Amino acid sequence: MTGQYLSIGLLLLVAAALFTYWKVSVDRHRRRLQQLDVRVHVNGIRGKSTVTRLVAGVLREGGMLTVAKTTGSAARVIGPRGEETPISRRGAATINEQIDVVAAHVHEDVEALVIECMAVRPLYQQFSQDYMVRSDITVITNVREDHQEEMGETLEEIADSLAVTVPRGGVLITSEDRPHLRERLRRRAEERGSRLVYADPESVADEDMRGFDYLQFKENVAIGLAVARLLNIPRAAALRGMWKSVPDVGVVRLRTYDVLGKRVLWVPMFAANDRESVVLTFSTLKPIFPPGAPVIGILNNRRDRGRRAELFAHMVPTDLAPYLDHLVTFGAYEEQVSRTIVEEGYPAERVHLLGETVQPDLDRILRTITGLVPGRDAVLVGMVNIHTDQAELLIEFFEHLQGTEHRSELDESRDPRRMPPGAVRMLGQQARRRPEARGA
User: Is Hydrolase one of the keywords UniProt gives this record (predicted)?
Assistant: First the structure.
């Protein structure tokens, strides 16, 4: 009996120690959050990483020392100077990463936090908002059909799932343009004592977009301007901050390259992977494609994204047929995808398999693509996902062609010309503290 009592006592001590550690960690996390003047939680289906970067740029240029964290195509922490640090993971990403970022990067001088929602399941989204971020401003970029397994089959159900990240007694900002979905978000915000602000893309002038050297959408910029109005940051400063912010690695930058004697306009659109975003991007870009140049689309399908592969297979004969002269498949599900595309009316002779069923090297990929170009010019568009063997070969090839012109987003983020006013102020404060510390 004595041994049993000792075991029970030991278990109770371990439980008490774990509870104490948990309680201390939670209290520290909340104190770090409470010291911040502004906390912004960015959710939505498309554009979360881009909007996180833009909003952080607005706050930095508005004079606030701001830490941002994106998940996106490559997870990053963006410090008060705008400098980026990759997030290293030992296993699968979890929402606990949000707590680690706050602990490591929110020090006493930091005034604002902009953090991209990592969670997909509504329960985890709500936990992330109510316990990990506790934002006073939440952004829901838009409502699109994606992650239906976790968030619901209809747009209305998806809107409700996203709305669990609305703050209590705060502000919800959205650029969702469909009135019935926006009204649904408004009702969910009011249920939590918050108000909705519509970031209207019509408020963004063409001139406001000229400062971006990559494909950007007025919907995203409108959100940044809405945050600026809410926090009394001048419009000019807000735009300057967004122009200076380094784009996500998955953004579309249009460049033309010489590939085996052909001039190929490379459009890396891999980060756009829902129907509406892809169709919108094509309609935006089509007027600037070289006249008469064949447009070759790449469906890049990951093994763990079967639902997305199926979606795009159905999109090709309907939504994308007016834009695409040829289609190349990379990655997984090639036979199923190509069969669906042809059965629904897209010509079989315009579908070319270059993925897992073929396992091509780079030379074969390039020769197949350029062989589809009868003249001098072509447009090559990558879609659906980034990471497959074939896509990575192609991305690395185009990056190599950029040569000395190419700078990684990490290098760009450390460019002194991007340093915001708040960082200059912070450096001055640190310089003043050093003599004081030496005198002490």
Answer: no
Which single residue is written with the structure tokens 């600037």? 288
Cβ neighbours of residue 222 closer than 8 Å, sequence gap 6 or more: 175, 199, 200, 201, 203, 204
Domains and CATH numbers, the chain: 29-249 (3.40.1190.10), 255-405 (3.90.190.20)
Record the pTM.
Answer: 0.72
In the chain, the N- to C-terminal Cα span, in Å, equals: 60
pLDDT of residue 46: 86
